[in-house]
Design a protein that fits this description.
- The complex is a heterotetramer of chains A (325), B (369), C (277) and D (146).
- Chain B contains 11 helices and 17 strands.
- Chain B is an alpha+beta fold.
- Chain B folds into 2 domains: 181 residues, no CATH class; 127 residues, no CATH class.
- Chain B is flat and about 80 Å long.
- Chain B starts with a strand and ends with a helix.
- The mean pLDDT of chain B is 89.
- Chain C is α/β, with parallel strands linked by helices and 277 residues long.
- Chain C has a 7-stranded mixed sheet with strand order 10-9-8-7-11-12-15, sandwiched between helices. In chain C, strands 4-3-6-1-2-5 form a 6-stranded antiparallel sheet. Chain C has a two-stranded antiparallel ribbon with strand order 13-14.
- In chain C, α3 links the parallel β8 and β9.
- In chain C, α4 packs parallel to α5.
- Chain D has a single domain, classed as Rossmann fold (3-Layer(aba) Sandwich), CATH 3.40.50.
- In chain D, 38% of the residues lie in helices and 18% in strands.
- Classes of the chains: A alpha/beta (325), B alpha+beta (369), C alpha/beta (277), D alpha/beta (146).
Chain lengths: 325, 369, 277, 146
């Protein structure tokens, strides 16, 4: 990590960039916060380890409007989001200096805690070049868990170790995929209509309408969200019965369909653990099936499938025909 | 003091539920929150921290305040219909307001932790202040709190900074205090309401003596002292610090990662801001109240503009409210109880502890300079 | 139906009269359905007026408490609620709850003093309640000066009342001004703060200011130039409100809630607050 | 459940594009081709105007079925509106099926202004289908129910 910090300091010192967006050490060993570093001195608090899961590309919307270049640290999957933001003219590429950083999968503290770990006072083995096991020092004794056992859900469906955009790449990433990216979607598709309904009802009824999924989403970059509009009859904050949540999550997924890079931030941030990526993945899978494979953010020039068409597109009735067959 | 074996807890639940609605930590799709004790409920009583606080029981995320029934009177309605006149003019429409019924049945919140009890005290200072909020008061009058010692506090807990004793729930402003120790649940009524509840469920208990929980208390205290934030300093906060803290340069940087979501607000046991909105139903208008967050950009939006325009101002509002404005109004009491839910849940790992520490750090730096 | 009445639950009111004041301001007379006033209030207090299904908003009660027959609200059309209010007609029902907030200290501090009212545009609405209260209890107060300005002659609210009533009360001086020259207007032309300095009031009075924020800012500077001190100037603030009882948490400026601790503040009090209004 | 003479009468919302399908409905009417009065037509400029939110909102407010009618592909008054609508509706319907909303409560049909007969047949078929599915309970808002 010291090498990385030195490199960032050098970039600041030679004037290549005016600021760096990265992560700052947390007050605990597992909660770094995304932060803006304006000086070499501030970089002393910089950290990059297994808990730096946050996708920093959305912070570049504001940062690239500032004077001077902003360096941003992007993991391979984050680089797709950045490309998509370029595609939508939300960031100024000329004002960005992208450092592709290596990733070996990011850790999910909730998953660690679910294994029975509590009262964590220190964590070791989470650096990029660290060990294969993570050691938790806790108030109730030390515990060891394999690094790969406690990754964020999205990392098990890793998109790959290559950065799709970067000015320089530091370190070597690992592809951590162990399952098909649509396996979870297929499992739900195989359910009966009533089972599907029960499944989503149970999950979505946990929603507290905090909007974290929307606010963290790099695709949800509208200046004013339709769900915040006073002119539109949404019951934004009322979680009165299951309808509003369904409406919100379906429409939100729909609004990012064809643009969602499948970065998985929505599921990572949900305070109630709702697997929101299942909506986005469903749209991606359908788009792939109906209109040809498409990965948003892979190519900043590519046309989104929902702003395009062909004369031969399938008819909507395919949905009911398909489910019968 | 009374006791019951942990294996027989469901007998206690049934006994309580016979006369009251019982609310306790229930696991649903992997997440534990306070919910009703119903057939098939997956009770997770040893959960230290539910995802949401139990404030929902007194200040629900959504509640109807009143219904308005609206009737348009056709312009050609004959004058004989007496209802068409009021206040000396011909009426074009009539409205009638019907207040939603208040809660009138007792309910028990079982397993609420001492920090969350304190959170309800914080809410009391707001909702029971004149003019009293009757919707809240009715729930307070009918709610019975069975508070439980925190056997295994975690690193995100910092309740001791606010003078809360997680080892001894009998110090909390609740009705019954309970401990889980050596395979038993120990029960002690600490208020008249609690005694009445005890009387009604007495048959499931055996007698026990006070000393049974001393070892547990001591072990909890031992852990509490070791928590990383046990000695979080609140010296810079409280009454009369408004000007010094409000204009601090610390706010300029610290808010930046904030997503402006409402996670911290909605999981917080003391956040009490709400919105009032209308819903047009088939036969009238339902006016409801729902949680709101000062982190949202539309929170203070008016027709002529917004007085807290930037996320910095909104971020500052939330923490100043908890650590300065509220203490100013309530004799130094903080509007934070150290439950640590925001510490666990903030998507960007930003939280009140980091804010407090950032201010301490900036003071230390100033001292050096 | 529950018998408990909560302060959040409103009363039904009937619109018994609507006056077009200006192209975008209407004054609504409101009565209880059985006749009479919905509630008593003091000058400067506000009420939450609601069109069910649309929204609810805080409006100052512009009629004086000395008016025993009805209450009035002067409302400018500027958002979704006020648009709907403007589309209502006599005989329509709305809901009203109140009164909320504090009031101008008409029975204590103001008593026996000379008063200087400075208003801009719709800012006259909250002051009109005080002015009429003082006029109706004329002997309790000294000299009354009213400086009122608006964008144009058409935008002067309650012009008829000003000309026919206020101007004819003894020891009441009314100064009107409009921002730009206009055909048929032979009065003063210019912004309120400039006119204030032109007239140059003496400091033996209490200043009561209400208007757009930018006007308040410059009027304050003007008054200071004339020698006024902050503790002899009052104003009334407004922020977004939902509950009106200091609980919903949005209208605070520092540790003060505008709805409960305000809306009337003295300027030395306002100066102690953080600049979030 | 809205029952008339012991029979379930579904509420159907039909979004019809101004240029073709609304004309088709008109023709059905002026040709005295009857279809159930349960169908409430909402005229939109183009099938491409139909926002997915319209459909969900209709269900929330008590609709049992929603059908979108537009010009035949290639005949759109605005050249391409219905092509976009086709993609959107395909994805939306697939999503509704995915979250467990019964198949058949939504439908897209291309009806030209000359196809009064097709309009009648489509509506009759759709009403029958929704009738067989019964009342929409999965996507409604409780507050809007009788």
């Amino acid at each position: 990590m010291q090498g990385l910090i030195d490199r960032l300091k050098a970039l600041l010192a030679d004037g290549t960039v005016a600021r760096v967006i990265g992560w700052k050490k947390g007050d605990m060993s597992y909660n770094p916060t995304p932060a803006v570093f304006n000086s070499a001195e501030e970089l002393d608090e910089f950290v990059y380890d297994g808990f730096c899961g946050a996708n920093l590309s959305k912070m570049m919307i504001d940062a690239t409007k500032l004077e001077g270049k902003t360096a941003v640290l992007l993991k391979p999957c984050d680089s797709y989001s950045f490309n998509q933001l370029i595609r939508e003219h939300r960031v100024n590429r000329d004002n960005a200096y992208i450092i592709g950083i290596a990733c070996r999968g990011k850790l999910d503290i909730e998953r660690a805690k679910a294994t029975g770990i509590k009262g964590i006072t220190d964590v070791a083995g989470v650096e990029h070049d660290g060990a294969d096991t993570v050691t938790f020092k806790t108030l109730y004794g030390d515990k060891e868990v394999a690094y790969n056992e406690i990754l964020l859900g999205r990392c098990y469906m890793c998109k790959g170790k290559e950065h799709v955009i970067a000015d320089e790449v530091i370190g070597e990433s690992k592809d951590t995929a162990v399952m098909d990216r649509f396996a979870q979607v297929e499992a739900i598709e195989a359910m009966s209509s009533a089972e599907k309904f029960e499944y989503f009802k149970k999950e979505l009824s946990k929603c507290i309408r905090c909007n974290a999924c929307r606010n963290v989403c790099p695709c949800c970059s509208c200046r004013k969200c339709v769900f915040d509009s006073t002119k539109f009859d949404t019951q934004q904050k009322a979680n009165v019965d299951s309808f509003e949540e369904k409406m919100f999550h379906i429409i939100r997924a729909f609004h990012v369909a064809g643009r969602c890079t499948d970065c998985g931030e929505c599921s990572r941030v949900c305070p109630q653990g709702i697997p929101l990526h299942l909506f986005n993945k469903k749209f991606i899978k359908d788009i792939d099936t109906f209109y040809g494979e498409f990965q948003a953010g892979k190519d900043p020039e590519a046309q989104s499938p929902l702003t395009a068409f062909t004369f031969e597109d399938v008819e909507p009735k395919i949905v009911s025909e398909r489910s019968k067959g | 003091m009374l006791k019951i074996s942990i294996d027989k807890l469901s007998a206690l639940y049934d006994a309580i539920a016979a006369n009251n609605e019982l609310i306790l930590p229930v696991r649903k799709a992997g997440v534990v929150d306070y919910a009703s004790y119903e057939e098939g409920a997956d009770v997770a009583i040893d959960t230290l921290k539910t995802a949401k606080s139990p404030k929902n029981a007194f200040f629900p995320q959504f509640e109807t305040l009143y219904n308005v029934n609206k009737k348009i009177i056709p312009t050609d309605a004959s004058a004989e219909e007496g209802a068409c006149e009021g206040a000396g003019v011909a009426l074009r429409s009539t409205l009638s307001v019907e207040m939603a019924p208040l809660v009138d049945k007792d309910f028990v919140i079982f397993g609420i932790k001492p920090c969350d009890v304190k959170g309800i005290e914080v809410l009391d200072n707001v909702f029971l202040a004149e003019p009293v909020d009757n919707f809240y008061k009715a729930r307070r009058d009918h709610g019975i709190l069975v508070t439980m010692a925190c056997n295994e506090p975690e690193e995100s807990c910092f309740c001791s900074a606010f003078g809360i004793d997680a080892a001894d729930p009998s110090k909390a402003k609740a009705d019954v205090a309970v401990w889980m120790a050596d395979g038993n649940l120990y029960w002690k009524a600490i208020s008249p309401k609690g005694e009445a509840l005890t009387e009604s469920v007495k048959s499931v208990f055996e007698d026990s003596d006070e000393a049974a929980v001393e070892a547990t208390k001591a072990s909890i205290e031992g852990i509490l002292a070791k928590l990383p934030n046990a000695n979080l300093s609140l010296d810079m906060w409280g009454k009369g610090v408004l000007d010094d803290r409000f204009y601090s340069p610390v706010w300029d940087e610290i808010f930046k990662p904030c997503l402006a979501c409402g996670t911290c607000t909605f999981v917080c046991p003391t956040c009490q801001c709400y919105d009032i909105k209308d819903y047009t139903t088939k036969d009238g208008i339902q006016r409801y109240r729902c949680w709101d967050s000062c982190m949202y950009s539309d929170f203070t939006m008016m027709a002529h503009g917004n007085n807290r325009n930037s996320q910095k101002e909104r971020f500052r509002q939330r923490f100043m409210h908890k650590l300065s404005y509220y203490p100013d109004k309530n004799d130094g009491m903080f509007s934070c109880v150290g439950c640590g839910r925001c510490v666990d849940k903030c998507p960007q790992s930003l939280n009140i502890v980091k804010v407090i520490k950032a201010f301490e750090a900036s003071k230390a730096k100033e001292g050096q300079a | 139906m529950s018998n408990v009445i909560d302060t959040l639950v409103p009363k039904v009111g009937v619109i018994t009269g609507i006056t077009d004041e200006t192209p975008d301001v209407k004054t609504f007379k409101v009565n209880a359905p059985e006749g009479g006033k919905l509630f008593e209030h003091m000058p400067g207090q506000c009420a939450m007026v609601c069109v069910p299904g649309v929204s609810e908003g805080m409006f100052s009660i512009t009629s004086s408490p000395t008016n025993k027959e009805f209450q009035e609200f002067s409302i400018k059309k500027c958002g979704s609620l006020t648009d709907t209010l403007h589309s209502l007609q006599v005989g329509d029902m709305i809901t009203v709850r109140g009164p909320y907030g504090n009031n101008f200290p008409v029975d204590t501090v103001f008593k026996g003093k000379n008063l200087l009212f400075i208003a801009g545009g719709i800012g006259l609405a909250p002051l009109r309640s005080v002015i009429n209260y003082c006029i109706d209890n004329r002997d309790d107060y000294g000299r009354i000066d009213i400086l009122y300005g608006s964008r144009s002659a058409d935008d002067l609210v309650k012009l008829k009342e000003i000309q026919e009533v206020w101007m004819n009360v003894p020891n009441v001086n009314v100064y009107l001004t409009i921002d730009r020259e206009q055909e048929g207007w032979d009065g003063h032309v210019g912004f309120v703060p400039a006119y204030l300095e032109e007239i140059g009031f003496s400091t033996d009075c209490i200043g009561i200011v209400c208007g757009p924020p930018i006007m308040i800012k410059f009027v304050l500077q003007g008054l200071k130039k004339l020698g006024f001190t902050d503790d002899q100037i009052y104003s009334t603030l407004e922020l977004r409100m939902k509950c009106a009882i200091g609980k919903c948490g949005r209208c605070n400026i520092g540790n003060k809630f505008v709805c409960k601790d305000g809306p009337v503040f003295r300027f030395d009090q306002i100066n102690e607050l953080p600049p979030e209004y | 459940m809205p029952m008339i003479n012991g029979e379930f009468r579904p509420k159907i919302v039909a979004f019809c594009c101004n240029w073709c399908s609304y004309g088709g409905a008109d023709l059905a009417g002026s040709s005295r081709l009857s279809y159930p009065a349960d169908v409430k037509i909402i005229r939109v400029p183009c099938s491409g105007r139909v926002n997915p939110m319209f459909i969900l909102r209709a269900f929330e407010r008590g609709a049992d079925g929603v059908i979108i009618c537009g010009c035949h592909p290639g005949d759109c008054h605005y050249s391409t509106g219905n092509y976009y609508a086709r993609r959107r509706m395909t994805l939306l319907f697939s999503m509704l099926e995915y979250i467990g909303i019964e198949n058949g409560r939504t439908r897209v049909e291309w009806v030209s202004a000359a196809e009064g007969v097709k309009f009648q047949a489509t509506m009759n078929e759709f009403v029958d289908k929704v009738k067989s599915l019964g009342e929409n309970v999965r996507l409604g808002d409780l507050r809007c129910k009788d």
